[in-house]
Amino acid sequence: MSRTFNLSLVLLLLSSGAFAHQQGAVDSGSFVTGFMHPFGGLDHLLAMLAVGMWGARLGMPALWMLPVAFPMLMAMGGVMGILALPLPSIELGIALSVVVLGGVILASVKPPLWASILIVSFFALFHGYAHGAELPQQSDPLPYSVGFVVATGLIHIAGILIGFVTRLPHGMLALRAGGGAIAATGIFLLISL
User: How far apart, in Å, do the first and last CA atoms of the chain sit?
Assistant: First the structure.
């Protein structure tokens, strides 16, 4: 459990601001910039951790399906952002993702697989849209996108590893407390909008 806590602490310390999704905020299209971007905002970091944590809590096949569904729909949202298709209240949707995903962990919600995929996919659109809206300003969007996807995958894996805390004595309580902390942070992000 101490390794999981240390990993969580490092990820949170890497996060420098509340919102990673500021249109026009990214000035370079490099792989490194794309890789570091998910760590630059607490909203994205916590949502990605929560997807992995919830997947681990739900077990197979959600363990791998939620972390796969999220980036797939995030890519669709990214295309929507690049094309400037209308999607209202982007930052609200992103902040709500943190509240809801943390809340389902806190409440130990175990919906049918299709419903959990639907929830994760809905919020993935908002995260993707925000990043897609930034991409046209990149000098080279391909390496940026690859870096971003790799980092997102690693954060999902970290969330899954955190989710495995349930295998320890009192682990379910610890996981639910983590979900509560994520949801509470999401409420703070909502208030900060």
Answer: 34
